[in-house]
């Protein structure tokens, strides 16, 4: 992948991708054979965005992503390169539609009380309501919504 003939700028991006691939399960790595994007829930997300979202949204490993806290810290250090090489998404939502970050501000997250977040929050609340009614499936699979008493 990286050789002495690889341009220096390209080496930086490839090193980041190699690091990310080393921290995800093979099934996830295969989704990123085209190195930048993966289609999920109507959006394309980069692998870097997947790791960042996993940490900010869930605070733990999961969905085939490992060592997410460590990877998140690494990606924060590489933020300028990620933006420069289009390896991170500008705006990302969770599966319900709540914004996780906007304008590349993944190190601070989103202020859900801000005016620019209002439309995201409104849409997300509608999605939560639809899910409770069994009419919304953010994961494209059959979800069982259980009553807490069951």
Overview of this structure, please?
By secondary structure, the chain is mainly alpha-helical. The chain has a domain at 8-111. Helix content is 43%, strand content 7%. The protein is built from six helices and four strands; from the N terminus they run ααββαααββα. The strands form two sheets. The chain has a two-stranded antiparallel sheet with strand order 1-2. Strand 1 and strand 2 form a beta hairpin. Helix 3 crosses helix 4. The chain is globular.
Distance between the termini: 52 Å
Strand order of the largest sheet: 1-2
From the alpha-carbon coordinates, what is the Rg to the nearest angstrom? 17 Å
Average pLDDT confidence is 74
Helix content: 40-55%
Q: Notable features of this structure?
A:
6 helices; 150 residues; mainly alpha; 43% helix; two-stranded antiparallel ribbon; globular; two-stranded antiparallel sheet; disordered C terminus
SSE blueprint:
Elements: H1 8-22, H2 26-31, E1 38-40, E2 43-45, H3 47-58, H4 68-77, H5 79-84, E3 92-93, E4 99-101, H6 118-132
Antiparallel strand pairs: 1-2, 3-4
Helix pairs in contact: 3-4
Summarize the structure.
The protein is mainly α and 150 residues long.
């Amino acid at each position: 992948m990286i050789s002495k003939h690889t341009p220096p700028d390209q080496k930086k991006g490839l090193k980041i991708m190699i690091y990310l691939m080393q921290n995800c399960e093979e099934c996830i790595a295969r989704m990123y054979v085209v190195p930048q994007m993966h289609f999920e829930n109507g959006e394309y997300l980069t692998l870097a965005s997947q790791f960042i979202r996993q940490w900010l949204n869930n605070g733990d490993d999961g969905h085939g992503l490992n060592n997410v806290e460590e990877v998140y810290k690494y990606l924060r250090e590489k933020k300028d390169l990620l933006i420069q090489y289009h390896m991170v998404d500008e705006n990302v939502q969770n599966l319900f539609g709540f914004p996780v970050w906007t304008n590349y501000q993944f190190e601070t997250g989103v202020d859900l009380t801000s005016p620019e977040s209002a439309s995201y929050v409104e849409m997300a609340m509608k999605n939560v309501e639809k899910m409770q009614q069994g009419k919304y499936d953010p994961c494209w699979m059959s979800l069982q919504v259980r009553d807490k008493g069951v």
